Amino acid sequence: MSTAVETDAIPELRELRTEHGVLRYRESGDGPPLLLLHGSGPGVTGWRNFRGNLDTFAQHYRTYVLEFPGFGVSDDFGAPHPMVSARTAVTAFLDGLGLDRVRIIGNSMGGFVATDFALAAPERVERLVTIGGIGTPVFSPQPGEGIIRLSEFVDNPSKEALIAWLRSMVFDQALVTDELVQERWDQATDPATLENSRRMYGSAALARMAESMRSADVTPGWAELRRLTVPTLVTWGRDDRVSPVDMALIPMRLLPHGEIHIFPNCGHWVMIEQKQAWEAAVLAFLRR
């Protein structure tokens, strides 16, 4: 059952009760359904990722901004890793709202989750757009600078560490305002939300991730991309210091119906730094 929660935000925050916990989301517009999936990082929410883009997409689509479990808005599903909860949440959300087939835009972590969902259930995805969130580095060192800064913050939270991470996220340093820092700090230091971030990006978590990538028994996710039959638009900031742009090379080669659009003078938050150009490219792809 879906219910509305009264807030002073526009649009209102809604609740969808599932067997795993309560998912919260915002929706706006009319038309075919479009699902927006946010990234990870200190103080992130779906609304903060996409609040500047919602009005544009809502002119053409019934647009849903889902809040992943464990990031301080939706309930924590209690999975051992937030990516597991996020994958569960997408299916639970679509099933709960009776959405059989959708277009999906995934930012960073949300791109990986969206890609996994499209591989598992291609019949439910009309078109897929990623903002980063796909592939693997070919030439660049791993982890990238932004992930290192993120790990430093979650291991030892301070405003200085938060600012260092935020500066690694963007090309235009003027975007790192006092208001942004405080907004992110307030939520990122919530104990439950911080613990969720540590499960993803703490130094111990990154070490486990690196070890699993060296294992001969694990098939890397990028090796499955040739099976992704859904039309896919991969978008990237040329100057991304979190997920370097050479991550797009393998998807460019392997995706059967993949397209790549790289935006100059742009870091990890393409939908914010190159808002108008990115929206135009995405709408052209979605409406084709």
From TrEMBL:
- In the UniProt record, the signal sequence range is none
> Does the UniProt entry include the keyword Hydrolase?
yes
What does the UniProt keyword field contain?
Hydrolase
- The EC designation for this entry is 3.7.1.17
Annotated Gene3D superfamilies? alpha/beta hydrolase
Highest rank taxon of the organism: Bacteria
Which InterPro entries does this UniProt record tie to the protein?
Answer: AB_hydrolase_1, AB_hydrolase_fold, Epox_hydrolase-like
Could you state a single Gene Ontology molecular function term? 4,5-9,10-diseco-3-hydroxy-5,9,17-trioxoandrosta-1(10),2-diene-4-oate hydrolase activity
Question: Per the database record, which ranges form the AB hydrolase-1 domain?
Answer: 32-273
Q: What is this protein called?
A: 4,5:9,10-diseco-3-hydroxy-5,9, 17-trioxoandrosta-1(10),2-diene-4-oate hydrolase
Q: Which organism is it from?
A: Nocardia cerradoensis
